[in-house]
Structures are given as C-alpha cells and as structure tokens.
Batch of 2 targets.
Target 1
Amino acid sequence: MNILVLLKQTFDTEEKIVLENGKVSEEGVEFVINPYDEYAVEEAIKIKEELGGEVTTISLGPDRFESAIRTALAMGVDKAILVDDPDVFGDEYTAAKVLTEVIKDQTYDLILAGYVAVDDASGQVPQRIADMLNIPIISTAVKIEIDGSNITVHRDVEGDTEILEAPLPVIITSQQGLNDPRYPSLPGIMKAKKKPLDRLSADDIGVSPDEVKAKTEVIETFLPPKKEAGRILSGEISDQGRELVQLLRSEAKVI
Ligand SMILES: Cc1cc2nc3c(=O)[nH]c(=O)nc-3n(C[C@H](O)[C@H](O)[C@H](O)COP(=O)(O)OP(=O)(O)OC[C@H]3O[C@@H](n4cnc5c(N)ncnc54)[C@H](O)[C@@H]3O)c2cc1C
C-alpha cells in the first residue's frame, strides 16, 4: 500500500497573530505540522504498519517547512517531497495544481490530507486535487478500514456519522478523532535526519509559473475588533429587562 500524505506547515495554534504592513508577521513564530495533517500522517503510518508499503509526504511551501517534514519522518514516514519554489506559491488553485503535478509522478493507492489547514482555512486543496486527478474524495474521516482494493470510511457530519465506501485510489481528509498521533521517538528523530527529502522546483515538475498563476487575490487582511468589556445591569428585574431591550436597540443595534 503506497500512501501519499499532503502535509502543510502552519502556525502553532497557540500563536498570537500580528499584522505588519497588512500581512501576517512570521517574526518569532513557532510552526508545527497542520494538526489535521498530523492525523493523516499517523493514519498513514498505522496502515503501513498493518499492510506494508511506503508513506511519502508531499508539500508546497518555503524552506521552513523542513522542520514539519522532519517531524513526520521521525514519526515513521519513509520519504518526503517539498516544492520550495516561490515562483509557484499562490492561491488554492496554484497549490492544488502544483501538488497534482507532483502526485502524477508517484505510484499510490491512497492519498491522505487534513480536512482543513488551520491558518488559511479554505478547505479546498484536497477537493481540487481529487477533481484534477479524477478520483473520489471522502472528507472528515474519523475511522478508516481497508479491505483489498476497497476502503470504508466513517465520516463526521456535524456530530453524526456517515459511512461511505470507495474503490482505491481515493483521497481521504482527516478529522479530529481519527487517531492519537504518536510522539516521535528519539531513535525516530535520529533516523529522520537521514531519510530522503527531495526538494523540487517548478522546472523539475514541468510546471510554468504562468500556468499555475493564482486566480484570486487577497485584497485586505485585518484582525477582528477588540472585544469590549461587558456591562452588568442593576436594579429591579423589570427595569433591567426594559434597559436591556433599549440597549439592544440603540447601542448594539441588533433588534
Ligand atoms: C509560502 C506560501 C505563500 C503563499 N502565498 C500566497 C499568496 O501570495 N496569495 C494567497 O492568496 N495565498 C498565499 N498562500 C496561501 C495559500 O494560498 C494556501 O496556503 C493554499 O492555497 C492552501 O489553502 P489552505 O491553506 O486554506 O488549505 P486547505 O485547503 O484548508 O488545506 C486542506 C489540506 O490540504 C493540504 N494542503 C494545503 N496546502 C498545502 C500545501 N501547501 N502543501 C501540502 N499540502 C497542503 C493539507 O493536507 C491540508 O490539511 C501562501 C501559502 C504559502 C505556504
């Protein structure tokens, strides 16, 4: 079973977002594997341990992605591919097109990804790739069972569960609850340093920057307004009720 995992590095979810000149500053920020991709990595390793085969991560991003990739290699991934060419960094269309070109050169039975990247959070890339490869996609998996050339997936649907089957190859995106990602062991960390990480440029994958040019443009990035302090009303409960309705109408303007 050859498994590809789409792996994106994102801000640590504890990080405070700071804007500088209208862009999110990366100054002093801690980066991690996108949490949903960590479930995908764990699941790929578990399937490999049960059925044999190889796990390869594929990423599109800058040089800093290497630390997330090495963590995945230390967990048990066999090898990794990183397209670290700024000429092909763009929007969701760009990411999907570039990753698809890399995938086309691989032999695979299954592709695992996160259901969303916690930073840009478009939840589009795996769906676009499935369309470009013309293979099925099942999103938000919380349980995966493989039987020969078929896969059964339990997916989370807003707290309910839906069970779907598909023939391999298929793309599955992972949801929280799929598994408990392992911590890399010390020997795993040592081994990861020597595992292959292929760095590719647009040229290497035969993609011209024009062909994958972003189709969307970010016009503005801004932080949500600061939360204002709450107000506690006092007096008779009937007076409080009247004051509340008045405030909702005149100040909050919600009624
Ligand atoms: C270096 C860099 C430069 C960027 N520059 C721009 C820019 O100029 N303009 C702009 O609009 N946006 C830019 N982006 C944001 C970029 O468009 C999005 O990161 C990308 O389109 C994916 O969207 P998403 O993160 O919302 O992924 P989602 O669709 O939410 O991700 C779902 C899953 O897809 C997979 N995936 C997503 N992205 C990647 C990836 N890069 N590598 C591997 N797997 C992935 C992961 O498994 C992830 O869990 C940049 C991103 C990076 C990393």
Note: The pocket of flavin-adenine dinucleotide is lined by residues 6-8, 34, 36-37, 59-62, 89-92, 95, 99, 113-114, 116-117, 119-126, 214, 216, 218 (CB under 6 Å).
Target 2
Amino acid sequence: MSSQLLRIEGLNKHYGAQHVLKDISCQVNKGEFISILGPSGCGKTTLLRSIIGLEVPDDGRIFHNDVEITHLPPDKRGFTIVFQDYALFPHMTLYDNVAYGLKLKKMPPAEIKERVMSTLGLLKLSKAVKKYPSQLSGGMQQRAAIARSLVLGSDLMLLDEPFSALDAVVKVDLGEELQELRRQFDITMIMVTHDQEEAFSLSDRIILMNRGAIEADATPADLYKMGDNPFIKTFIVDQINKRARYVWALSRGGSA
Ligand SMILES: Nc1ncnc2c1ncn2[C@@H]1O[C@H](COP(=O)(O)OP(=O)(O)OP(=O)(O)O)[C@@H](O)[C@H]1O
Ligand SMILES: [Mg+2]
C-alpha cells in the first residue's frame, strides 16, 4: 500500500485578476507533520481551504489515498480543521461542542459518550466538560477545538495558525501535546503558519510558499542550508539566526 495520503497536482486559483495559487504540486505522506509556511498573504489559507473543500481550484487535481477528491464537497472528504480562533459554539458546553460532529453522524449516544470522554481525557479536559467556552482559557479552548476535531476519527487534521492567539508557554505545551496525539491517533497533520520557529520545531517537512508558489519543500535542516536562495535567506535563515543569537545571549546572562 502506498504511504502517500494526499497528492496535489498543478493547483491554480485566482481571485479576480489575482493569481493566488500558482501551479501548486506537492504530496503528504501518512503520519507526517507538514507545515505550510510563508509570509502573510502568500496563499497558505487558500491552499488549506482547497484541501478541505471550501475552495474550488481553477484547475489542478487533489487526491486522497489515490482517489481524486478535487470536486468533492467538504463533508464527503471528512477532513477536520482547527482554526486560530477556536470557533467553538459559545452556547454549548465543552462536552456538547466535542460531541456535535458525532451527533450529526447519528452515532449511538453511549458510543458518543465513550469517545468524547476518552478524547477529553487525553487532552486533560475531563474536569471541564460542563463548562462553556467563555469559562475556559485560550489554551483550553484550543485543546477543545483539537478534541472536537480528533474525535471524528479523520486520517488528516488541518490546522490554520492554531497557536497565534496563545501565549508563548501555552504554545510550546500545546505543540508537544499535538505531537503526542499525532502518534497516539496515527494521524497526519498539515499546519499553516507564518511563524518560522513553530514550523521548525514541529515539522517533519516544510512546504515554503512565496507569493502563491512553492519556493521549497524540504526538511527543516535542509531548508536552513538553502540560504543561497534570497527569499529563504531573508525569511528563514536570517530569522532563525536572529532568534538563535538572542537565545545564546540570554543563556550567557547578557542582553540580546
Ligand atoms: N475570498 C477572497 N476573495 C478575494 N481575495 C482573497 C480571498 N481570500 C484571500 N484572498 C487574497 O488572496 C491572497 C492569499 O490569501 P490567503 O488568505 O490564502 O493568505 P495567507 O497566506 O493565509 O495569509 P495570512 O498569513 O495573512 O493568513 C491574499 O492577497 C488575500 O487578500
Ligand atoms: Mg491565512
């Protein structure tokens, strides 16, 4: 069996006269953590929305487990997405938020309860089941959004800037939890981010976008070696070096 989960071939998308996705081709293997990294406005969210089925490309094709899905509606693709702003239903408890998708699927109530409670347990949210989103911290709300996504049992989870609204410590903890969940659930993750550090610390491979096109598709270590490319030098290498100097200075007790 192929280890390839997703394959994208020659995707193009325009908004009016603006060419937002330019001949995008890439693939994602089962179990990988992939980041789609690039500056604001380069087309990351549009690519993610095309994968989930919320955007229809002008041309090009998308395959899931070797079956073409380019024109399937989102509910027939079955991928789940986690957004920056959590997008929980404010009038529902944490339990009902996480159970919502399973109720839609008409799963028997006892099975729903078991799945929801075990997933909430893994995300350390068991004690908060009766709380409403407004009663939860940002980190808890994002874990709830991840639980709501995981519980559906999809083989691909998409995350659009999932850490942007969180503070630095929560961000690091949640990143580690995400990696742990990925292993436990044997799920593939594609995360959109504009943050080099996030992409470098979490990804097996980074798909680097620049103005609608793929500039590079490489492991973090290989990407760091591509400083001959001017875009990679300024957007990646210089940024990583700047942060490394800062951490080094701090570790020596100096100022950065
Ligand atoms: N529905 C839309 N209609 C018209 N233009 C759009 C639409 N959605 C996005 N765009 C434009 O397409 C380009 C790519 O947008 P996209 O949201 O994919 O970028 P991004 O890389 O996710 O940026 P950010 O890091 O700011 O989220 C931008 O110039 C944006 O203004
Ligand atoms: Mg975006």
Note: The mean pLDDT is 93.
